[in-house]
Every structure is written in C-alpha cells, then in structure tokens.
Amino acid sequence: MTLTPDMFPLTVSVRDTVLKRFTHPESLLQGAQHMDPQELSDYLLACGDTSLSPLDAVLQRADELGDPTLPAPSASALLAWVGAAFSSWERDFPLDPAIRGELRKLKATVARAALSDPAFTTPGAHPAHQLLDALHAAAIGWQEDLGRSGDSVLKLLQDTSASLTDSSQLGAAPQIQLQLEAAIESARRLDDRNTRMCQRAADVERAKLRSEHARDSAASAINEALARAPLPGACGEFLRGPWFESAQLVLLKFGLNSGEWQAMQASTLKLVESLGPTQGAPTDDLEASASAIRKSLERWLLSLQHQPDAPRGTLGELEYLLLRALGGQSIERSPQLPIEIPGRPEGGRAPTRLPAEIAVGSWLLVRSGAGAPQRMQVILRQDERQQLMLCRHSGLQTKSMHFSDFLSLLREKRVALLPSGASFSRALASTAGVKAPAADETGAGAARPAPAPKSDKTAAQAPRKVAEQDAGVTAAGEPLPLPPLGSWLGFHDVDPPLLARLAMHDAVRGLLILVNRKGMEIRRLEEAQYISLVQEGMIDLLETRSNFRQEVERARRRMQRHEQSQQ
Amino acid sequence: MEMERRHERLPVEYRVYIDSENDSDERDIEICKALDISKSGIRLQLKRELAVNAFIHLAVEARGEPPLILVAVVRWCQPLEVEDAAGNWLAGLELQASADSDYESWCTLLEELAL
User: Fold this and answer.
1) Interface contact A242-B25, CB threshold 8 A
2) What is the rounded distance in angstroms from the CA atom of residue A203 to the CA atom of residue A22?
3) Quick one: CA dihedral B102, A204, A373, A406, positive or negative?
4) E strand or H helix at A128, and its extent?
5) What is the pLDDT of residues A266-285, one digit of tens each?
6) Is residue A149 helix, strand or coil?
7) Alpha carbons A44 and A46: distance in angstroms, whole number
8) How many CB contacts within 8 angstroms connect chain A with chain B?
C-alpha cells in the first residue's frame, strides 16, 4: 500500500530510522571532528547552489574553506534525509520547473528546522512540512503560459522564500515559526481561491448540462404530442415556441419526476386531443371547456410570464381554435414538424467506468493536442451522463469530455495523474522507510497514521472567514464564468421565474445587463450577485438559441453564396 | 435626436449584421449598412425600425476582415423621407465596452482608419 494524504500527520517520530539510514559513515569515524551547530547553520545559509542536498552543500562549503570538521552523526543523518526527501518530492510530485526552482530556495531553511526542532522528525506534524505541502497544493496547476492568472502563485513562492530566508538570516526561532505559519495560511488561502474559481466553472458547466437535458426532455415530450395527429399551424407554432421554452423552465425548476412536469404534459395532451381531428362529440359548454384548457396552459407558460400581455395574445388564437374545434366546426389541420433535437456527442456510446482516482479535485497532466501538456484539474465528474470536466488553474480553459474519450487518452498515455496532498510529508515518510500499514494490520508498527487524520483541505478550510471566502474575485481580475453574449438564462430567485438574455458584461463596472426578447433591459446584476445566484443554483443556462458569432458566420456564407451566384 | 458625439465620425459603407428577433420569436440576422462610425457609435441604414434604448448585438464587416462582434444601445431611430433600397430607417447606436465582444479591436480599427 502507498502512503495516502489522510495518514498525515504521523503520530510517531521517525528519528531512529532516519539516524540508522542516513548517518554519514565518515562522521562516525574515531577522531572525526564535528562542526559547531552555529557554524553548520551558517554553512547552510551560505550555500548558493539550491540543487545540492543540504549535506552536500555543507560539505562543499567546508571543503572550499578548508574546514576539516564534519557535521555530527545525527546532523549528517538529518541533512541527508532532508536532501533525499526533496529529491523524492521533486520526482514523485512533479511541479513546473520554475516552481521547483523557487521551492528549492527553501531547502536551507527546512534543513535548519530539521537540525533545531525535534518535532521535525514526525512527518506532517512540523510547520515546515505543512508549508511545503500547502505550497505544493497551491502551485500544482501553475504553468508559465497562465500569464496573469498565475502571478499570485509565483508571488506567493517568491515572498515566502524571501521572508523565510530573511528570518533565517536573523536566526530568531519564534520569528521563523511566525513566518512559517503566515506562509502556510497564505498558501492555503490561495489554494482555496483556486478551488472556488474551479467550482464556479463547474457550476456553469453543471447548469449547461442540466439545460441540455431539460431541452432534450422537453423536446421529446412535445414531439411525441406533435406526432399524435395533424394540428392547426398555430398550435404547432405554440408548442414549438413558448410552450417548449416554458417546458424547459418547468423541468429545470421542478425536475423530470415532479408533479408539475406531469401536469404540464397532461395540459399538452389535452390541447392536442382537443384540437386534433378525433376530439369526439361537440362539447356542451364550449366556453367553459376552452377556458379550462386555456387556464391550464396559462399556468405553465413561464417563459412569457415576465411579459404580462404576451400570454393573452398567444393564447387568444388557441382559445378561438378550441372553441371552433370543440364546437365541431371544421378547422384546418396539417402534420406538424417536430422540434429539432441536436445530436449530443455522447449519444449512442456504451457507458464506461473511470478509475476511482479520477475524482473531483485530482490533478492531471493532459496532452490532448499538438501543444505543450497542460496541468488540469478534474472539476466535475458525472457518472450518469458519462461526462468529465477539466480546467486549468483558476478555472481557466475548461474542457469537457465523454468518459470514453478520456479513457482513450489514458490508454494512449496522454493523461497522467499528478499526485498531490501532503506531498512533502509523504516524501519525508517514504524516504525514512515508512510503509503504509496493510488493511488488516493492527499491531505496533514503525509509524502509524494519526487516529483522527486531518487532510490539507480540512485544515485549510477551518479558519477561513466569510469575508475572505467571498472577497471580490472578479475585482482581482479573475475571469467570470459567463455563458456567451446572447445566451438565455432562467432566473429562479424571482417568482415567477424570469427568462432573460445576457446583453452585455461591463467588466469595468462589474455589471451584467440582461434584456427581454425585444432587447429592453429587465435586470441588472453585479458580478458578485450573479456568482452567488449561480452557486445557489438559481440560474439555469438555457441553450435555446445558437451563438451569435456562429449565426453571423452562417449569414455571411449564405451572402457569399448568393453573391457568387449573381456573378 | 442624434447621440452626443464624443469621437470623430468616419464615413464608411460597411456591411453590418444585426441580431434581432422576429414576431415568432425566432432569431433573425438582418443585414444592413453602416454609414459612419466612431469609437463610441455607429450610424446604420436599415429596413426596419429599432426600439430606442434596446440593446442589440451586431457584427461589423470592415475592410473584408472577419466581422467584429459588438454590443450597442439604440439611441435614436427615424424614418428616411426618400425611398432607398438599403432601407428606409436610420438609427444611431452607442457602442458598449462589453467583455466577450470585439470592442477593443474596434477601437484599434478606428485608430488605424484615423491615421
């Protein structure tokens, strides 16, 4: 079994194992002179080559100065262990080379902590371990091409190494302790911020998937009704138009198994049966029957409820047709075209299973195109719909794929899991020879996981203040996960629900302006309000219209064909 | 009637695609003509009346390049007194600096044209 993040911090020290494994043989020789602890500490700080292990750095420095002394046996073992742990950490938990370079600057500070603090030999328990664990978690998605979005990570690392190096130079242990704690807090805050940004991207995607599902379900149900019998043209247009949009809103608000959706379907069938050619004998009370059908339709016409006069006009013609049809008069009927249901890329594929470690929050190195591999995080895994969604640091460049496409990438070795979580603590433990206990092992072991394990995330989330969690992320220049301009959104925070189109996003004032189908403003939201509504599930993206850019491209091609035919 | 002018207007004859919806709620792409442009506005000749204060999405095809997608608010719209094949309405639009639009490219284009 491998060591997992939830086993940390360990509950016992690995000091004895470290001394056995790593003590420098020459330091044990009889007559060997040992360095003064302060001198050893100074040598560590003076070393400029961060690629060296702390022990090699000290020995090299002593050699340069013609110093014949060696670190004491225990010191040599601790320094060698820290060096081996750093190498293992870099190999088994790889980060971008630029990040690795910054983290190496902390090697001397960590080595000094190993020499001065007995608590250092319990992996995961010491603030220096927790700091490197937290920095790794915050920086795992960093890549140079992230641009401004990645600046905060690089700045955190640079500030951390600068402040800890300064404190180390001063040599004040309490000051170093404070700096470590502050740096851990900053790293965890940054990691949390990234998690929130990714969560927002996932929220938008989840809403989009729900909308697609609602659209398909609504279209299927209405198409079934349209196929039952020839109908008046006005009825077909009504069912394919506002009724279809309202059906999507009802599905989004109440769900496929709700009584509301069942009632709406019953209203659809009643309308179709009443206007179809086999509506039966003429009804006695025409007006009451037509009015009852109209009322049942009106109840579910959510898409027009923000335009008070619209339902009256739309339903007026249907009511007139109902009066005629129920009265046995002849009305013109014809077969009605169904609503087009776009083919989803996942349609018709056999369901597959993904490995359990491809979980929300895990990081991957993905080579999906010709460019450089990208570090991406799993932010959404929908087993039922076989959809996986990945994004880069800060919720950038989201990528959705079907499970089978992901498995293909995995088989072709174009996706690799990037291990994370208690990374440095795990590297320290594994280089000290700690093995994870077998599932049935209950006896005393060399090192055992803590009885109440506390993962990085749990520790990181506990002390957060609401104000910090909700601090204006977009004001800091982060991208707002918005659908394209012109998209229709359903708002469920108002009663009745409001259907509105995204007209513009004023990034300077942090405003979203939403309009009705005539282009008139009907709602204005601050970015923070929008994000909050998305998180509360109050906004659904209704992909009922195609993208304006695509529409323009289609219009241009039509125009070009037309012009060519004229020549 | 005309919007308050903050930038110099350049006479052009660009093709413009307007996003609009007809009475049956279907999306229409209407093709019309830009008569003059500035950083903050555009004057269109078109075949129908636009509602004042309405937000519209438009794509301007300038110099044969891929169209620039812009967001605008209709500030005025009035009928032409003479018949014209390009349309009998004139409208003044105020462009909005919306994210996800090509407004920055629009400003660059205007700077290049002004040189």
Assistant:
1) yes
2) 49
3) negative
4) helix A127-139
5) 999 999 988 888 656 656 67
6) helix
7) 5
8) 81
